């Protein structure tokens, strides 16, 4: 602030007439830099989000839209399916994110090993699942998870495991979602971790080895602390991603069986695009936003919120 | 761990990751009526050419790929520049409203995209932009995640480096181009891969915003093949397999920069 | 591959020209031909596109552009257009009966009232039971019936023979269950397949057909909830009985049903008329093995007909060329020779009753062992189905009924108790009354 003010004063002190002032001055440079982003933000983020806020206070659509105040939010609190969806989302979040990130870390450690050849190929391999388009993803997993003719049960059968009703039992359907999510995003996170691992100065490890620290000790006292910022980044991104989970239940389980994999975002979609209840859908979005923002704040508090 | 043991374990993981793609690729070489036949198809069939030809006939594969490539390239390029400029301002300048705008920008990360579609559609319609590429590109030019990544990475660049260039009489854009961009190249590459991936696979908005088949992007064109029970999966599989190729190539080409680029953003977080 | 500059130039030129004519040809007001846009999905769209050419020749001042949107993508596209006050919609929209009443009720003015364009004279031209479903609560007619899908009972005659079952003797679903047990024992094949955990709309056709055979549905004509009525419970009880007898295969997962069919593990497909062209297309090698008949009744001597779905052509309320659009709809859907060409090219079973006198509907079908397969469906439609009241809350009802069926099939829940809870839930969610 002080800086801008002094700059402003300096410009004025210079006494150059208004009409001759160049378009780009020191003072307005940051505003010019930010302008494109600001325009895009106002038009395509702020405006539609505020419009959605208004929609969440209405019912009906098109010509039949009427203002109903907080009715949609009251309805939300009393809607058992909303709470089911919230519970399912939380459950998947709590189970899936730690498993995936742990797997990703282990995978990254393996990929980072000096013993490995052809690293580019391996990396591409583990990154490939995140390239899958939605339709193919759905078809693949439906084929993989089918009870009587699925690939997964076929593989398990080789090891003598009885066929699992992946899509038919509420418990296994949630596991199936966890498996699909893990398949989809583990490689993505592993590639991020790999980047972090490669940045850790080798000298740190060499010094520790001189001190006689074993591999496990080196991992906990060097690798983990050095990776901390990256671990935080992936935790935040995965948490936000899972709270907005839509693709997997949409294409694989359809939210079933009996709503056991219904997530908040899927419920939002159903209300908007199947029941044409746009006001209610917008209210769900805002409820989710409040929850996510709450989580974000909590995470920031827990991690000290430092820059 | 011994090298061979590691390789063995990684090979298993690799198989798990790539296996479904292998199945997909094999499915693409079989006729629709064969894909879901009694035994899974783990070997190539002879229908690849026929499926591709049918796909070209029904959606105009080459043309649609061109559309998708154009939209993804233009959108990604502009969004990167927008993010770089904004990130530079956030990281290296003091100005009124800086923190408030930054927080607002980040808070939009958590809003589910679905709810903003209808207002944006109405806007595009009033601007008479429906069924044009600007309708696809414009809403995706301000990417909060990208601006965040740019800001975090730019914070790591010492001010002295910039000041030295300024003392030499370089304007801000020149400083940005001559000093900042070369240092930031890895992060820019990383962001490029992320944004390209997002633009390439985007489905719901292009579906809503486009009207004529000549304008369709690949995901929208592939959706036209869906006809409930009568979907021709031979074509769908070929289309999907082809659609993942450009991204694989991009990843291979950029991965060296990409991997160190992610790091710059995250470690300074 | 084209080089980069080529792609750029090409797409840029495309952007400019297409952006220039923005709203889809609405600007050709004066002089030149009027362009109307049709939104549809494959393969029906192929049929429509074929007759559109003939139409254009007869009406040089009207151009018809049939666009393939895909199903289910078309619903998202229409819904957003409707929600935006009808902006950007095609002139003619292909809409299934599962969505039509919702669009009519929830978006007043979204679809044009075809009565004003002269649709009234076709009131009796279509298969019985369809006209009430395209008529709104206000008496307006919001779509013209195009495709009708009476349910059929496609069965593998070879498996039936092996198990020593005479298909003609199966008159009720209870008979079918007995036959199913024998089939399972002798051939290992299941009677039918259902997606037990996550029944989508296609999988619920079966339950709905059992309701419709009894003249019932999720709602009655007044719009009250009838999901816990005696017919609804009886239909669900039948499904539970089949499931408990171990003769219902689980077809969850993409392609599972197809696999079971190719390996001869499904003896019966309770599918509608569209399957008469779909099965031969899907399993060409099973030629001669399949037959089709009317499905058995729920009660002895009861109705064997049910229209499990139908699709229609509607005109968007904001279309600037409603008269021209109706002219095309009239041409495509109300002339026997034209609709039969649509049928031939697009595989959708026509709703127009005058179309059935064409020899194709009584001709022997080679794939079905020389049986006149289509005649089965014509007979069904001649017998006449009751009108089904989908209501504007059909999507919610479908979801709740599907959840109830899942509970019955996967947890062995009691049909009556499950449906009672489901009906209550439906009434509460929609603000409708439970029927007395």
TrEMBL record, chain B:
<feature type="domain" description="ABC transmembrane type-1">
    <location>
        <begin position="65"/>
        <end position="254"/>
    </location>
</feature>
<dbReference type="GO" id="GO:0005886">
    <property type="term" value="C:plasma membrane"/>
</dbReference>
<protein>
    <submittedName>
        <fullName>Carbohydrate ABC transporter permease</fullName>
    </submittedName>
</protein>
<keyword id="KW-0472">Membrane</keyword>
<keyword id="KW-0812">Transmembrane</keyword>
<dbReference type="InterPro" id="IPR035906">
    <property type="entry name" value="MetI-like_sf"/>
</dbReference>
<dbReference type="InterPro" id="IPR000515">
    <property type="entry name" value="MetI-like"/>
</dbReference>
<keyword id="KW-1133">Transmembrane helix</keyword>
<feature type="transmembrane region" description="Helical">
    <location>
        <begin position="61"/>
        <end position="88"/>
    </location>
</feature>
<feature type="transmembrane region" description="Helical">
    <location>
        <begin position="133"/>
        <end position="154"/>
    </location>
</feature>
<dbReference type="Pfam" id="PF00528">
    <property type="entry name" value="BPD_transp_1"/>
</dbReference>
<comment type="similarity">
    <text>Belongs to the binding-protein-dependent transport system permease family.</text>
</comment>
<feature type="transmembrane region" description="Helical">
    <location>
        <begin position="100"/>
        <end position="121"/>
    </location>
</feature>
<keyword id="KW-0813">Transport</keyword>
<dbReference type="GO" id="GO:0055085">
    <property type="term" value="P:transmembrane transport"/>
</dbReference>
<keyword id="KW-1003">Cell membrane</keyword>
<feature type="transmembrane region" description="Helical">
    <location>
        <begin position="236"/>
        <end position="254"/>
    </location>
</feature>
TrEMBL record, chain C:
<keyword id="KW-1003">Cell membrane</keyword>
<keyword id="KW-0564">Palmitate</keyword>
<dbReference type="InterPro" id="IPR050490">
    <property type="entry name" value="Bact_solute-bd_prot1"/>
</dbReference>
<dbReference type="Pfam" id="PF01547">
    <property type="entry name" value="SBP_bac_1"/>
</dbReference>
<keyword id="KW-0732">Signal</keyword>
<protein>
    <submittedName>
        <fullName>Sugar ABC transporter substrate-binding protein</fullName>
    </submittedName>
</protein>
<feature type="signal peptide">
    <location>
        <begin position="1"/>
        <end position="19"/>
    </location>
</feature>
<dbReference type="InterPro" id="IPR006059">
    <property type="entry name" value="SBP"/>
</dbReference>
<keyword id="KW-0449">Lipoprotein</keyword>
<keyword id="KW-0472">Membrane</keyword>
């Amino acid at each position: 602030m002080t800086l801008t003010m002094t700059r402003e004063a300096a410009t004025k002190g210079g006494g150059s007439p208004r009409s001759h002032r160049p378009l780009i001055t020191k003072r307005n440079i940051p505003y010019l830099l930010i302008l494109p982003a600001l325009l895009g933000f106002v038009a395509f983020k702020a405006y539609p989000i505020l419009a959605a806020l208004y929609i969440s206070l209405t019912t009906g659509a098109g010509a039949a839209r009427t203002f109903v105040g907080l009715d949609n939010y009251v309805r939300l609190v009393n809607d058992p399916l909303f709470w089911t969806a919230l519970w399912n989302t939380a459950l998947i979040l709590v189970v899936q994110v730690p498993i995936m990130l742990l797997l990703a870390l282990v995978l990254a450690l393996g990929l980072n090993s000096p013993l490995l050849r052809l690293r580019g190929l391996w990396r591409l391999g583990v990154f490939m699942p995140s390239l899958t388009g939605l339709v193919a993803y759905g078809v693949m997993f439906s084929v993989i998870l089918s009870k009587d003719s699925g690939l997964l049960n076929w593989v398990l059968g080789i090891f003598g495991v009885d066929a699992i009703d992946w899509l038919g039992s509420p418990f296994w359907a949630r596991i199936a979602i966890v498996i699909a999510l893990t398949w989809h995003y583990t490689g993505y996170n592993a590639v991020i971790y790999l980047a972090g691992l490669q940045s850790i100065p080798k000298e740190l490890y060499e010094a520790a080895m001189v001190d006689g620290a074993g591999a496990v000790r080196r991992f906990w006292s060097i690798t983990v602390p050095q990776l901390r910022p990256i671990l935080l980044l992936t935790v935040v991104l995965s948490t936000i991603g899972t709270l907005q989970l839509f693709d997997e239940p949409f294409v694989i389980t359809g939210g079933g069986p009996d709503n056991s994999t219904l997530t908040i975002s899927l419920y939002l979609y159903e209300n908007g695009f199947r029941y044409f209840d746009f006001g209610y859908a917008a209210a769900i979005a805002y409820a989710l936003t409040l929850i996510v923002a709450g989580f974000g704040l909590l995470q920031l508090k827990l991690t000290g919120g430092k820059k | 761990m011994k090298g061979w043991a590691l390789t063995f374990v990684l090979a298993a993981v690799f198989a798990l990751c790539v296996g479904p793609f292998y199945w997909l690729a094999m499915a693409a070489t079989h006729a629709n009526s064969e894909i879901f036949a009694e035994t899974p198809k783990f070997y190539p069939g002879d229908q690849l050419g026929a499926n591709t030809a049918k796909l070209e006939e029904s959606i105009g594969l080459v043309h649609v790929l061109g559309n998708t490539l154009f939209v993804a390239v233009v959108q990604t390029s502009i969004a990167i520049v927008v993010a770089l400029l904004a990130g530079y301002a956030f990281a290296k300048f003091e100005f009124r409203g800086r923190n408030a705008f930054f927080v607002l920008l980040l808070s939009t990360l958590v809003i589910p995209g679905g709810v903003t579609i209808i207002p944006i559609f109405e806007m595009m319609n009033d601007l008479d932009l429906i069924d044009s590429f600007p309708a696809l590109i414009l809403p995706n030019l301000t990417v909060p995640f990208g601006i965040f990544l740019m800001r975090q990475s730019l914070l790591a660049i010492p001010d002295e480096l910039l000041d030295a260039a300024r003392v030499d009489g370089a304007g801000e854009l020149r400083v940005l181009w001559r000093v900042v961009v070369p240092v930031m190249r890895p992060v820019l590459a990383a962001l490029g891969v992320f944004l390209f991936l997002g633009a390439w696979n985007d489905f719901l908005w292009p579906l809503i915003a486009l009207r004529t088949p000549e304008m369709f992007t690949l995901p929208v064109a592939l959706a036209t093949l869906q006809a409930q029970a009568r979907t021709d999966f031979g074509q769908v599989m070929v289309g999907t397999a082809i659609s993942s190729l450009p991204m694989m190539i991009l990843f291979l080409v950029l991965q060296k920069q990409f991997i160190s680029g992610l790091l710059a953003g995250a470690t300074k977080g | 591959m084209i080089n980069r500059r080529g792609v750029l130039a090409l797409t840029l030129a495309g952007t400019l020209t297409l952006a220039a004519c923005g709203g889809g040809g609405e600007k050709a007001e004066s002089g030149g031909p009027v362009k109307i846009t049709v939104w549809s999905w494959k393969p029906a769209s192929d049929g429509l596109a074929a007759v559109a050419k003939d139409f254009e020749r007869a009406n040089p001042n009207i151009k018809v552009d049939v666009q393939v949107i895909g199903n289910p993508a078309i619903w998202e596209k229409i819904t957003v257009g409707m929600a935006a006050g009808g902006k950007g919609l095609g002139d003619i929209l292909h809409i299934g009966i599962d969505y039509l009443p919702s669009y009519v009720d929830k978006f007043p003015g979204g679809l044009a009232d075809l009565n004003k364009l002269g649709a009234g004279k076709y009131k009796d031209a279509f298969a019985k039971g369809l006209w009430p479903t395209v008529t709104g609560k206000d008496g307006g007619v919001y779509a013209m019936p195009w495709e009708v899908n009476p349910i059929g009972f496609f069965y593998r005659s070879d498996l039936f023979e092996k198990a020593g079952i005479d298909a003609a003797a199966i008159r009720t679903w209870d008979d079918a269950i007995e036959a199913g047990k024998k089939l399972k024992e002798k051939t290992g094949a299941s009677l039918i397949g259902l997606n037990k955990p996550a029944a989508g709309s296609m999988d619920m056709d079966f339950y709905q057909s059992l309701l419709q055979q009894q003249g019932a549905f999720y709602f009655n004509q007044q719009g009250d909830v009838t999901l816990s009525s005696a017919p609804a419970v009886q239909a669900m009880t039948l499904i539970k009985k089949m499931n408990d007898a171990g003769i219902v295969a689980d077809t969850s997962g993409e392609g599972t049903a197809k696999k079971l069919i190719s390996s001869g593990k499904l003896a019966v497909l309770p599918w509608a008329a569209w399957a008469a062209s779909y099965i031969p297309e899907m399993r060409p090698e099973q030629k001669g093995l399949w037959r089709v008949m009317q499905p058995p009744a729920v009660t002895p001597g009861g109705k064997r007909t049910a229209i499990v779905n139908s699709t229609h052509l509607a005109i968007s309320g904001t279309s600037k060329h409603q008269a021209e659009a109706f002219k095309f709809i009239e041409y495509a859907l109300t002339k026997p020779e034209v609709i039969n060409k649509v049928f031939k090219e697009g595989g959708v079973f026509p709703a127009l009753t005058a179309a059935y006198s064409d020899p194709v509907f009584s001709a022997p079908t080679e794939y079905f062992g020389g049986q006149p397969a289509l005649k089965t469906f014509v007979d069904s439609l001649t017998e006449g189905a009751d009108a089904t009241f989908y209501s504007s809350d059909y999507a919610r009802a479908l979801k709740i009924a599907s959840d109830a069926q899942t509970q019955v099939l996967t947890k062995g829940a009691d049909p009556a108790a499950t449906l009672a809870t489901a009906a209550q839930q439906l009434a509460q969610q929609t603000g409708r009354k439970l029927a007395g």
